Amino acid sequence: MVLGFTSIVLNLTNLIPVKPINGGHIAEAISPIICYIGLPFILYLLISINSLKGKISLFIVLEMGIYEIYNFTRKYKNNSYFKLDKSSRIEFIVIYGIMLVSLAVSGIYLYTLFDFNELFQSILRYK
Asked: Where exactly are the transmembrane stretches of this chain (predicted)?
């Protein structure tokens, strides 16, 4: 259960729409506006996380995200490479939404079903 929950959280984190991670590549195909949604979310995670390693890695992702979004916004206006037809864009939105919703629902379900604090403590006892 702990491994399943951890993989769900990692997958959800990977789908945050900021360019250095995979969600940013998906958002780049859909619209540059979606990329701006990910930056405040990364900033919120940076403020709320307690571990120093997590803060450092999120800070690096935030810096790279700001740089990539700036470059992408500039390129998006001038380059026809980023323009998708309407059916492809809708397909990307639907698949991205299904992935997000299914991971969020399964994560919430597992979190409410089991007491993960007790599970993590029992795993940490066996070093």
From this structure: 25-47, 93-114
The packing angle between helices 32-48 and 22-30, to 10°, is: 150
Residue that is written with structure tokens 């940490």 in the block: 124
**Predicted TM-score of the model (pTM):** 0.70
**Cβ-proximal residues to 17 (8 Å cutoff; 6+ apart), any chain:** 23, 24, 26, 27, 34, 35, 37, 38
Q: How far apart are CA 10 and CA 57, in angstroms?
A: 14
- Could you tell me which residues come within 8 angstroms of residue 37 by beta carbon, excluding any fewer than 6 positions away? 17, 27
What is the distance between the alpha carbons of residues 33 and 73, in angstroms, rounded to a whole number? 9
Domain ranges of the chain: 2-125
